[in-house]
Amino acid sequence: MDARLNYFADPTAGKALKHLMTAGKTIKDSRLPAATQELVALRVSQINGCAVCIDMHTKEAAAAGQASVRLNLVAAWREATVFSEAERAALELAEQATRIADAAVGVTDEVWACAAEHYDEEQLTALVVLVSFMNMVNRLNVITRQPAGNYEPGQFH
Question: For this UniProt entry, which segments traverse the membrane (predicted)?
Answer without folding.
Answer: none
